[in-house]
Design a protein that fits this description.
Blueprint: E1 11-14, E2 21-24, E3 30-34, H1 37-43, E4 48-54, E5 58-61, E6 68-71, E7 74-78, E8 85-90, E9 96-100, E10 114-116, E11 132-133, H2 139-144
Parallel strand pairs: 3-10, 10-11
Antiparallel strand pairs: 1-2, 2-5, 3-4, 4-9, 6-7, 7-8
The structure holds zinc ion (2 copies).
The site of one zinc ion has 9 residues, from loops.
């Protein structure tokens, strides 16, 4: 929780139904597309896009519970009421938590920096940008966003 109760979040968001609110006092570490099949199924979208936060900086109300895990290195949380994807953590990205960009009120000012699992993307999806396209998880680039 924020130590300064007067601090104003720089990022806010909510799930589809509004039962889950999200905020952070610090901006995302980075923003990434993920073209993997797991993120497609979880979000229902042809490609996921996620803002990475320091896990300690992301505030959710209500707090995240146990979440679910269908892969030993991944945990995902959905809204208890509407089922919206809320957040995911990955063992290979320690200290970070990934929030679907579409939940955030500031999404229009948070452009992605990288395509992860770019080789798994839908062949009919063409995103014209010059961003790095990682064939795998992009973990090196994503971990370096933490400054560690
Ligand atoms: Zn909800
Ligand atoms: Zn993914």
């Amino acid at each position: 929780m924020p130590s300064d109760p007067g601090a104003v979040p720089v990022v806010t968001g909510r799930c589809y139904c509004g039962a889950t609110q999200l905020s952070s006092l610090t901006p995302p570490l980075t923003v990434a597309y993920c073209h993997c099949a797991d993120c497609r199924r979880w979000t229902g979208a042809p490609v996921g896009a996620f803002a990475a936060f320091n896990r300690a900086d992301l505030i959710t109300e209500p707090a995240l519970g146990e979440g679910t895990s269908h892969h030993p290195a991944v945990r995902r949380w959905n809204c208890d009421h509407c089922g919206s994807p809320l957040a995911a953590t990955f063992d290979y990205l320690p200290g970070q938590i990934y929030v679907p960009i579409g939940l955030l009120d500031q999404a229009d000012t948070l452009p992605p920096q990288i395509h992860c699992h770019a080789n798994k993307g839908m062949p009919w999806l063409h995103i014209a940008d010059d961003l790095e396209r990682a064939a795998g998880s992009g973990r090196d680039a994503l971990n370096s966003a933490s400054g560690t």
